[in-house]
Amino acid sequence: MRYLNRPAFMDAADIAKVGLEINTRVNDLVEVGELIKVERETREEEAKDSGKAGTNNKNSILKRLLCGGKKGKSKRQADKLDRQTILQFKQAVFLLENDVKDFQDASDAYQAYNPLLVYVQLVLGVCSLILSLLWVIHIVVYVLPDPAWNPFLNVFVQWIDSCFPLFGVLAVAIFSLYLLAAGIMGCFKMGLRFLFFTLYPMKYGATYMSSFLFNVALVLLCSVPVVQFSVNAFADYARYTNIIQTFGVQIQYLQFFRFFFEAQIFENVLLLMTIWTAGYLILKPVDKPTNTLELRDRLLKNEEE
């Protein structure tokens, strides 16, 4: 997608038009940011005032017991809406920064832009597509069936390992690291599109320490299931090894996880999520920011209430 959405040459009229659109988006986001700031300050003041009133009122405890459920529910809804608004605002800012970068590459900073970069991204995209297809086929013909229909990637890894042992290890490492990278990118895409959690983007030369630590924790969290899945996927190649003894025997037959491994819950979920994600990205390949006008109107409505 980076290749399809690569910066293109623009004449003076196109530059002026796109610049005006970006300027409008910037002004709208600045206004939304100010409204969010005002709303938060108002809530903090109301919370302080209600706290002082509660301590001075003798019947405050009884009122809280009688009305606490309704107020607590409305407060939770307000907090949830506030978090959703913040996430939508961060998403819009992140996508705007990307658009500004692309606009600069196509206008002011075009001399510093490397046109070969998009072709490198195209090659990486094709390689990713090939690896994804190989993984899906391998899951269908080897991981899920019992007994396996075909060793598939195990045959390839064993053959390349017979040529030079290091090549077999590198092949397994490439497939495993691709799974790890896909998992991390998938989490970020889910957060960017569905706003399930706070965004922690990784940008070269512009990454906060909190974002870096979050992604490091995400890598560590995804490493164990990737290793477990890779052991099952390359069981023929890794037979008689310590990793098979650890993950293929000791962990696989733990009392709690035994049912999940025997029913192949994780593998089926992975395959279904892969198919669903592929279809979704085909239908909606580009990230679209939240409508800034709707976000602003919602904040203005909350401020009036």
From TrEMBL:
Segments passing through the bilayer: 116-144, 164-188, 208-231, 265-283
Topology versus the membrane: Multi-pass membrane protein
Subcellular location: Membrane
Predominant place of localization: membrane
Keywords: Membrane, Transmembrane, Transmembrane helix
GO CC entries: membrane
PANTHER family (alphabetical): LIMR FAMILY PROTEIN DDB_G0283707-RELATED (PTHR31652:SF0)
Name listed for the protein in its UniProt record: LIMR family protein
Organism listed in the record: Proboscia inermis
